[in-house]
Amino acid sequence: MKLLLSLRFTLLLLLGACASLLTAQKPYLGDLSYITPEEQRWVDSVYQTLSPDGQLGQLFMLRAHSDRGPEHIAQVRAEIERYQVGGLCFFQGTPEKQLELTNIYQHLSRVPLFVSMDAEWGLGMRLPDQTISFPKQIALGAIRKNELLYDLGAEIARQMHRIGVNVSFSPVLDINNNPSNPVINTRSFGEDRYNVTIKGYQYMKGLQENGIMASAKHFPGHGDTNVDSHYGLPVIAHPRARLDSLELYPFQSLIRYGIGSIMAAHLQIPALDSRPNRPSSLSKPIVTNLLRQEMGFTGLVFTDGLEMEGVTKHYGNGEVEAEAIAAGSDILLLPESTPAAFAAIKRYLAEGKITQDAIEEKVRRILLAKHRLGLTRATFPPVENLRGELNPPEAYALKQKLFENAMTLVRDSDGLVPITGLEKRKTIAVHVGLAAPTAFSTRLDDYGKVTHLNATYGVSPAERSKIIDGVSEDDLVIVALYSDGSRFLEKVPVGPEVLALLRGLDAKARLIVTVFGNPYSLSALDGAGTVLMAYSRDEVAQDAAAQALFGANKIDGRLPITASPAARFNAGIETHPVARMGYAKPEATGIDGNLLAAKVGILAREAMARKATPGMVVLVARQGKIVYEEAFGYHTYRKKRPVYTNDVYDLASVTKVAATTLSIMKLVDDGKLDLDVPIRQYLPDVAGTPLESLTLRPILAHRAGLRSWIPFYQETLNPSKKPSSQWYRTEPTGDFRIPVTEKLFLHRDYVDSIWHQIYTNELPNVGEYRYSDLGFYLMAKIVDQVSGYPLDEYADRNFYRPMGLTTLTYNPLGKVSKSRIPPTEEDKYFRQGVVQGTVHDMGAAMLGGVSGHAGLFGTASDLATIFQMLLQEGSYGGRQYLRPETVRLFTSRYANETRRGLGFDMMQLNPKRKMNLSPLASERAFGHLGFTGTAVWADPVEDLVFVVLSNRTYPSMNNNLFSNLDTRVRLHTAVYESIQREDVLVALPPLDGKAR
């Protein structure tokens, strides 16, 4: 019977994977049913060099440790040389020793080795306290932003490449619906087949698109067991129909989407193989008939560890391995005895139980997989700087993000979350199972004065009374229940003593219970009215929980399992911190989501097909919620790196409003700037120059008479039109310290020349409208002079950092993975290379990347958040960043102006001019366009934010098709056309931009 995919799984096609923290790697293609001519030549050439023993050796993957002594190392070396084994699986040790041994073992092997690890929650699963442990899959199952699992897979892939590993035994696709499961439990994404499938797909995609083979385990499904297969043979007694609809569903789905390998578990499943004590890993009906033939799997099949008692109890030494090969597996993981296994397999060959053709097919499949992993020759990553490169800040940021998104408010009957009004009541935190100070208690302290008390799970009556007596009626009590720290289960042993404490506290005060461990522990907490599930006592989870309780982060998680009648699958309350951007379906805000997606998709594909831009991100937010965020195309026309919604773009002139104008508004608010005072009061250097009498108001409206721009870089080129050695060096040295690119540094003295040219600029158009960058150069310097902080730091301190906007930044390299930043141009006129991660604008680059007119980078969502704050008249997250009257002043039209506010662009009212935004927008809409193909518009009438980010300037800024097609205007119009109202029927505007 063929296993059918539910139509719901087609949702996977709509899930956009976020960008990773990883440098580009060749994707691993898991379908081994086809082979290219080049692959065929390599496979043939290698296969022909293998002796019969060498062929068998490719089927073996040995256990390897880096914490064992010379005897173990010598044994591994000997088996590599004697049996030409195909791979190793590493366990405990240290990263440095593991890589050192990997390089030694690869050097010894005639054919490069598969090197694998169990890295379900990262390298920390096998190398704890030395490498990062990401959240376990039960916590990931709570996350609604599935694209984060792509990021996780991609970062684990990056770390694996760095340590010489090429196969990850993850994701776990077991559907855990047995709370007593002793071995899967928190390693599963949960009990729902769709959730498990989607999460597993994103994780797999993150690994394989970044060059690591993923392995789905434990086939055909280990979730509904109460026996650990390390110590016995679990029995799955369900009928075939149940297996098809539940256990097999995620495996079938990921097979369709190219999973590279599958691990066959040690399970007895009578419905699939009725022979007694026949593990599924040794079952031809299961491995060959079901997995290969029925389900159509074309990748590699690994056995689960063959040392496990679930398989060794019933079969003799060497027989296990021979039976596994006969059943259809390709690779024997952790054989008990390589010599015995070799002997048994040869005996099976002689007896006809295994054919030579079957061995050849397996070996060729293995060699093809090695080719696709780049194992045509061994590589030897350096040990130097390994620890730091396995533990970069970006990876910890990802871990934090994962835990933040996993937080699940199971229930909140009294509406206590987010916590507010701390000044009105005493806050007490009771830590059970782990004594404060903890990461949780430390973070709680950051939000106000908190009294911390400690207790054990066996809290005595006297201790309980002391705690309860110290609580007053109006107090807020936060009880933290920490797990016992067990590796897989993270048990939270809530017994009668703890329940008595909780009842006593609940009777006297406002009570919030936070659980740092296994979600099945919720079964004992049905009496608690407010419960936050944090899934782990990991310090990052503790930190994320504290921030969530105080409203710093949105709580968005959903329970991935059912623990009790009051804690069922998918339970979870979504909190919206005061005035913070949220997420919703388009229909929830009056937008037809299908219509919006169709219109935007057509326009995006048109732009890419016409080569107006290689890719783009489009975002729509309405009523304070992001309702549409989609990525299209690729970073370049080479189509190697897809665009993801969290890619970081050069925002170009959007900098003028998202950094400079904001900063000017803040200084006006603070009484440090007057828009109508000559700028010489703030910039003494302009005294005696043509600029001395200019004021900020006309500068902001582009009516100060300043030239549009000055090509400063041209004077720094030599006669060959290359950067002159008089002004540049390829490394920072001496006074050559201004970073123009990663490999081009300008002499400090030339910065003075830039300012001199600006200051001495004549004003040929005073009072007339002329769009000018020069005024924003000046305003950046004014911010610096008046505030004492350079523009980038001032904007970061006053807006980006407190608002939590992690990608809005100048000079993103070092803060954001370069792979997330689409290149903006192949510069052949100045920088002589690809501009990626450094500002495209030449003048801004010559100022070290920070200027008032350009230099800001960011994602669509962070940019949208800035404009949501402006729509909310300066308020965001419970904080007033700007006064409402200041926001209204700057976002209102300048006197007698058809297009400009103060700093902000607005709808062009002159019908003779080209339209700059949708003709359906209100005249109150404000925003800006950017040279690189960016745009952001906020419409107070519709409570609408629209963002489009692209790198239309790649490979050449002379490509004007993006503007000629009016892509930004037409995309903006598509949003308005998707708003559901009966009285508006419009079509996309024609290419001339004129409304009909």
Question: What this model shows, in words?
Answer:
By secondary structure, this protein is of the alpha/beta class. The protein has four domains: 25-389, Alpha-Beta Barrel (TIM Barrel), CATH 3.20.20; 407-576, Rossmann fold (3-Layer(aba) Sandwich); 578-646 and 896-996, Beta-Lactamase (2-Layer Sandwich); 648-858, DD-peptidase/beta-lactamase superfamily (Beta-lactamase, 3-Layer(aba) Sandwich). Helices cover 33% and strands 14% of the residues. The protein has 31 helices and 31 strands. The strands form seven sheets. An eight-stranded parallel beta sheet has the order 7-6-5-4-3-2-1-8. Strands 15-17-16-31-30-29-28 form a seven-stranded mixed beta sheet, sandwiched between helices. A hairpin with a 4-residue loop joins strand 30 and strand 31 (944-950). It is globular, with a radius of gyration of 31 Å. Mean pLDDT is 91; it is low at 1-23 and 983-996. Belongs to the glycosyl hydrolase 3 family. It comes from Neolewinella lacunae. This is beta-N-acetylhexosaminidase. GO terms for molecular function: beta-N-acetylhexosaminidase activity. It catalyses: Hydrolysis of terminal non-reducing N-acetyl-D-hexosamine residues in N-acetyl-beta-D-hexosaminides.
